[in-house]
Amino acid sequence: MTALAGTDAALRERARRVIPGGMWGHLNAARLPQGYPQFFARGDGGHVTDVDGRDYVDLMCSWGPVVLGHHDPVVEEAAARQAALGDCLNGPAPVMVELAERLVDRIA
To answer: How far is C-alpha 107 from the chain's CA centre?
Structure first.
């Protein structure tokens, strides 16, 4: 498979020139074994693909936020519905209160 957006090695080199340390925080793979991927091109379900075209099972769930997998159709539809209403408003949308109420109902 060909590289999707450049090679990981090339992207690391470019990042070192413009980002302190080449990457921020816990995502910095510089000290990990050679070949450990730093840059990813896509995710589908429980799998991710690095920029060199190698596929992996995403055992980290992207560090937790995608417990339903990448591109879950229900989540994608809900996000698109909300984005159509506005994605950067001057205050929170009613959905914030609705979510908080649902969370409290589950805990209480």
So the answer is: 27
